[in-house]
Amino acid sequence: MVDIATPEFLNELQSLYPTTAKYVDSGWFLAASIAFSSSNCPEAVPCVLRHVLGDLDKLPDTSDEDRRLLVRKMRDGILKSGMLSGYPKAINALVSLYEATPEELRDTELLRDSTRSKEEDAAVGQAYFDSTFGDTAVKIQPMLRSIYPDLEHFAMTIGYGYVDSFVEVISIKETTFVTISTMIANATPSRVGWHLTRAVHYGATVEEVRAVREIALRIAIKAGAPLKNEVPNI
User: Fold this and answer.
1) What is the pLDDT of residues 111-165, one digit of tens each?
2) CA-atom Rg of the chain in angstroms
3) In the 8-state DSSP scheme, what is residue 185?
4) For residues 88 and 13, what is the distance between their CA atoms, to the nearest angstrom?
């Protein structure tokens, strides 16, 4: 389904997102790459990469660090999306992205701190979870524990502690974009409304949030995702 990510469609998606001062701060390519991955269209991810690198090449004063950051954002966003869409999808997308990435833009060292203890990861994860879910955290966490204690432990230690709380590549706002795009493209939009609101809480404009939602929705529809329920809006 490479044809799904035509230049015309990518231009359409890009036009939905408000213009940003710096290209690498735009959320359109992050939302698109996540939605393609979560819609099980990994072959479309390199098309996004080539499109955005081509855009950067046209801009004055673009540095190698800009290019490296852009690729890292796509890579880390897909990694984070795997917590929701499933890692078979994320791995396929990361393989496609790796094969299309120029060698000088590939990472060869860990970005996250692998020396932290399990207890440290759990503490960081708890703080991130509490920040993400606010007043509802006291209801959601016991629910996770009651349906399966191992799920709560995994979510706090690995999901939120090791994976999502790392915001040195993509910010908390952008991580919320990842969640929104994944849930829509994965045809599980029931909790999207909450995350749309949280994205604004973390600094996104309403226009940016609506754009991320629309980008993911258009990709999901074009990819044939079984959207059985209406996708909330803000």
Assistant:
1) 999 999 999 999 999 999 999 888 899 999 999 999 999 999 999 999 999 999 9
2) 17
3) H
4) 25
